[in-house]
């Protein structure tokens, strides 16, 4: 059934993947705060129940693995819950194929993710043409890096006549919760070659922790 606001209008809903994680729970809270309903997806039913109890009736818990989601399942969920978009905070995105955003496009749902995986964000442009054809938006990298860090850079470099060096780094704070996805993402790059700009040219260097 469709949940309606005080004025009788149907409430917009987002399918939120990884809803009980360190970032997903905060995103769920923010969506509810601005009047958007959340169909919260995660594997752990107890954590989902706790999230729904904390945030109220705007949250519908749905315990399932994201691997079960394909275009047909997303279409069914979209019709059942009045969805207009998918937000993926489930991570890690490293070495993951873009099957879910492709399925979202096929289901006619907008897509946004909290990825900070370079290859994932760089490769999402391949979905631009099918997304435009379907009339939906596909947005990748709406995370601390690259989205927030580049928003800050745009602000502090406004009006600059020249930019010589920009360095951006990200690490979990000592007091911040460290979810499984965050740790898997960090550890997956240990010792792996990464593309860096040094001495005026691009080169490969091993990732370090």
Describe this structure in words.
The protein is 37% helix and 19% strand. It is α/β, with parallel strands linked by helices and 209 residues long. A six-stranded parallel beta sheet has the order 3-2-1-4-5-6, sandwiched between helices. Strands 7-8 form a two-stranded antiparallel sheet. α3 crosses α4. It is globular, with a radius of gyration of 19 Å.
Biggest sheet descriptor: 6 strands, parallel
Compute the average pLDDT: 87
Helix content: 25-40%
Total strands: the figure is: 8
- The CA-CA distance between the termini, in Å, is 48 Å
Tell me the series of helices and strands, N- to C-terminal.
EHEHEHEHEHHEHHEE
Unreliable spans? none
Strand percent estimate: 15-25%
Side by side, the strands of the main sheet go 3-2-1-4-5-6
Give descriptors for this structure:
209 residues, alpha/beta, two-stranded antiparallel sheet, globular
